[in-house]
Amino acid sequence: MNSAAYDAAYDAVVVGGGHNGLVAAAYLARAGRRVAVLERMDHTGGAAVSARAFAGVDARLSRYSYLVSLLPKKIVSDLGLDLDLRRRRYSSYTPYGDGRGLLVDNGDDAATAAGFRALTGGDREFTAWQDFYGRTRRVAEAVFPTLTEPLPERAQLRKLVADAAGEETWQALFERPVGEAVESAFADDVVRGIVLTDALIGTFAHAHDPSLRQNACFLYHVIGNGTGDWDVPVGGMGAVSGALERAARGAGAEILTGCEVTSVQADGGSAEVGFTDASGAERTVGARWVLCNASPRELARLVGDTAPAEPVEGAQLKVNMLLTRLPRLRDRSVDPRAAFAGTFHIAEGYRELETAYRQAASGGLPSPAPSEIYCHSLTDPSILSPELRQRGYQTLTLFGLHQPARLFPAHDRESALRAVLDALDAVLDEPLTDCLARDAEGEFCIEARTPLDLDADLGLPGGNIFHRPLVFPFAEAADPTAGRWGVGTPYAANLLLCGAGAPRGGGVSGIPGHNAAMAVLGA
């Protein structure tokens, strides 16, 4: 590698300015390393951004990622991030039957117990609920701190989990399909479905999938910060990426937007990165380390790996909406402001989820289409202009399950959107369209993104929000390339993953960025 040909040389180059890349850059720059971040788009943040999605409407929606669970307080503290992450009062609301629903209230156990009693006719399910999530809480307390430590081996993590919650809990979550644990713990179909959804968000699998990819998904959804709480970022998801960019720049990192990386070469001792800058000029920089915040699929392309890529697909429909008011529910006993403040489950009974999976696996759009919804602006109205707040406007975010990339474009985006809105309308006392706001051009304030859209917009392989199927947060002895922190690649010792596709990646966490930085720093 000819250093004389470089436009510049750095200790580390980060490919991609998503939130994980910004975390890595901030840690390295704070440690005195010269760091450059190369971002293809004209802004940083990747999927963790806010945007004015509707023409002429002053509402900043979290366009792709929307809640924060896995961002460790350690990263927030280490980097001095100015963030306000608010816990939601209500965990979930699930309509069932004709005009009834189950509201899980984080602030009122007695009311939640009464809701379970009305659903099931007794106290068994609520007692089982408390026991089940008591065990996952103990798992979370044991496992979450390890995510920002060197990657443990399977036996080490197994001992931590068994000591905290029992060997049977390890077996239930790490060795056997999670459907077995759900069916053993709960008898009611509605309750089983509420629990199972955490295993399916962004993951195309079923309760008894032998791959256990649903188990890994479930684990990451219940261990965040040792509590499993999913928090609302005040100011929207862009506030998270904005704070990280300020931290990285403040520490001295160079952040170059409009720069599309075209090649990466690394030999273990040095590296060079080719890219096209914002002016269209071809440039090359040298580095001791390269940290890839893009997907493993993209990294393979950049290094010239021509081996067939592992098939990857996402499995979700993302819908953003702005309403003039919240819709009325058929369940008149629950205030819509409570029902929509947590996770509002639609067509997510246990049997409904299984049916939807089988329909999608056969190439059809699920009907009824399962989804979950929440209203950011109930917890954080700051994303709306003062005028919209005064007029009572609210946002809704809908996340449709079992909508794998394979369904598109055989089915179009409008058909998928109609399917999830039909399922929502079935539990409302009025059509949702009666509440949808209109933009400056008179169009409804609603946008939908399929997995193929996410691939085109953000480079997510097959629209997979985790870059590839999630894996458990431990090292298998058979993987010699992962390294102490689990971020190594098969290409060179100085070429690391720092994005969602790394072990312990996925979600808005910053964890892979932290771990790649620690690998560089020799921690």
Descriptive overview:
The chain has 523 residues and is α/β, with parallel strands linked by helices. It has 3 domains: 3-48 and 74-79 and 234-312 and 465-521, 3-Layer(bba) Sandwich (FAD/NAD(P)-binding domain), CATH 3.50.50; 89-122 and 317-400 and 409-449; 129-229. Helix content is 34%, strand content 18%. The strands form 4 sheets. Strands 1, 2, 9, 10, 11, 12 and 18 form a 7-stranded mixed beta sheet that branches. Strands 7-6-14-15-16-13-17 form a 7-stranded mixed beta sheet. Helix 4 (124-143) packs across helix 5. It is globular and about 75 Å long.
List keywords for this structure.
523 residues; alpha/beta; FAD/NAD(P)-binding domain; 3 domains; seven-stranded mixed beta sheet; 18 helices; 34% helix; 18% strand
Which homologous superfamily in CATH is the superfamily of the largest domain? Answer: FAD/NAD(P)-binding domain
Question: What is the terminal-to-terminal distance?
Answer: 28 Å
What's the count of strands?
Answer: 18
Approximate shape: globular
CATH topology of the largest domain: the name is FAD/NAD(P)-binding domain
Topology:
Blueprint: E1 8-15, H1 19-30, E2 35-38, E3 50-52, E4 60-62, H2 73-78, E5 85-87, E6 90-96, E7 100-105, H3 109-120, H4 124-143, H5 154-165, H6 167-175, H7 178-185, H8 189-197, H9 213-222, E8 231-233, H10 237-250, E9 254-256, E10 260-266, E11 271-276, E12 282-292, H11 296-303, E13 317-323, H12 336-339, E14 343-346, H13 350-361, E15 371-374, H14 376-379, H15 386-390, E16 394-400, H16 413-425, E17 446-449, H17 451-458, E18 495-497, H18 511-521
Parallel strand pairs: 1-2, 1-12, 2-9, 6-14, 12-18
Antiparallel strand pairs: 3-4, 5-8, 6-7, 10-11, 11-12, 13-16, 13-17, 14-15, 15-16
